[in-house]
Amino acid sequence: MIRTTAVYIAAAFAEIAGCFGFWAWLRLGKTAWLVPLAMLSLATFAWLLTLVESSAAGRAYAAYGGVYIAASLLWLWQVEGVKPDRWDVIGSVVCLIGAAIIVFAPRAPAVA
After folding, report:
1. What is the pTM of this model?
2. Of the residues 17, 36, 39, 98, which has the fewest C-beta atoms closer than 10 A?
């Protein structure tokens, strides 16, 4: 459980950093030299998701979505300097609850 959470958090920040590299280049007029770093960050994100213990990729990705939303709001606040409002926080909590249900729900063994 701790490993899965850590992998999801690391993946979220790798994905956000990679996407933000493109955003900074295309929307903020920053140097194109950010693009190779952004691509490396996005590749790291994809690799990290393969480390999640899950019998199905789609389930791992679905649960990751909730973590991504919460991490995006932390990025908004810490990197972009925009404090999330109560609706951002409420929405994030709802998504994290959904992610927890997906990850920790009791399931029958997978049948091949």
Report:
1. 0.79
2. 36
